[in-house]
Amino acid sequence: MGEERFRNKVTWFTFFYSILVVWVHSYNGELFLGRTRQGQLLTNFERFFGDTVGQIAVPGFFMISAYLFYRNFYWGALWSKWKSRVQSILIPYVLWNLIYYAGYALGSRLPFITQVMGKGVIPFHLESIADAVLHSRYLYVFWYLQQLILLLVLAPVLYLLLKRVWTGVIFLAAVFAAVWMAADFPCLNEDALFYYGMGAFLALHGRYLEQGFNRKRGLAGLGILGAGLMNLYFTKRFFRPGTTVLYRLLAPIGLWMMIDERRLRNPRPWMECNFFLYAVHFALVRLVNKTVAMAAPPVFWIPMALYLVMPGLMTAISYGMSVGLKRFLPWFWRVLNGGR
Questions:
Q1: Comparing C-alpha atoms, which of 194, 96, 193, 195 is closest to residue 141?
Q2: Are 128 and 122 in contact (CB under 8 A)?
Q3: pTM of the model
Q4: Phi and psi for 278 in degrees, rounded to 5?
Q5: Which residue among 95, 138, 267, 300 has the highest number of C-beta atoms inside a 10 angstrom radius?
Q6: In the 8-state DSSP scheme, what is residue 187?
Q7: Alpha carbons 337 and 318: distance in angstroms, whole number
């Protein structure tokens, strides 16, 4: 496929994953209906999306991030790639964590907001600020960016291990063995390392993923997706961490290969604000759910409808915010959105 189609496909997939992430964080059954039979039914329905379909989103993000970093990689490009990621990942990571911390600290001192937040008064001092940034204490979804930053720091080591097929296979097999045995790496999430390493490996050795769509590629993708779903079945039955990770790895790869990029229209502007949507949705979803729950009667269809429309609602709100920022604070928008 051409470069434009490749970039368009990346945008479509990252938008799809962003929608799934919103659903993962939109559970509201117990919040609206309590521990009732209806509440449990709604929770089961919501967790079908959040705990199964939605769980391919972050692995998909890791693989796309790795693929883009190691695509056309060579040693001379390392510094320029690191420099671009400082702007697109590190600075937004720090800034967004500070914004969330300031918002929660201020909100915890306002009567109505603190009631909705339910966190008590949040202290405001240097130690709390450092904790908020280093551990994403108030922006939990940025654990993904925290891990991504660590993986980017390890780029020279990963490239040495993955640039040859045989060393790459041995490395990925060793990481998967650690996943299977539920080992804990210091600081680094072994699942994230596996997804990211696979994305990097495919960028270095699997550029056939960028070839134009044909029947053979589509059938191969269907087979890979089927293998992922089989691992999901094993996960549900035997609760193995290894099969969980395989499902979350294979499903995004299978979907990428199955989707004919020629049928994807050029992304709309509101589909291109995926990083901003990822950053703002977490607080907004909770605010909307808790605010509506405080005013709405305990009727099944209200939280059900709210859950279903939440991705569209968050997309609309985040896009509206992005338009305002671009118009009135363009420099701040560029920093917040990592220059995207």
A1: 96
A2: yes
A3: 0.93
A4: -60, -40
A5: 138
A6: S
A7: 12
Exposed, middle or buried, 88 (CB in 10 Å: 0-12/13-18/19+)?
middle
Q: 156 vs 65, 70, 81, 102, CA distance in Å?
A: 16, 11, 12, 36
Contact between residue 143 and residue 158 where contact means Cβ atoms under 8 Å apart: no
Q: Closest Cα to residue 247, out of 230, 265, 266?
A: 230
Q: Is residue 108 scored above 80 in pLDDT?
A: no
Sequence-distant (≥ 6) Cβ neighbours of residue 29 within 8 angstroms: 39, 40, 41, 42, 43, 45, 46, 303
Is there a contact between 325 and 295 (Cβ–Cβ < 8 Å)?
no
Please write the tens of the pLDDT for every residue from 11-39. 999 999 999 999 999 999 888 988 888 88
Q: What is the pLDDT of residues 232-276, one digit of tens each?
A: 999 888 777 899 999 999 999 999 999 999 899 999 999 988 999
**Confidence at residue 116, expressed as pLDDT on a 0 to 100 scale:** 60
More confident residue, 118 or 245: 245
> Would the pLDDT of 119 be above 70?
no
- H or E element: which one contains 84? helix 78-85
CA distances from 295 to 1, 292, 298 (A): 51, 5, 9
Cα pseudo-dihedral 252, 258, 261, 264, rounded to 10: -80
Burial class (CB within 10 angstroms; exposed 0-12, middle 13-18, buried 19+) of 220 = middle
Give the three-class secondary structure for 3: helix
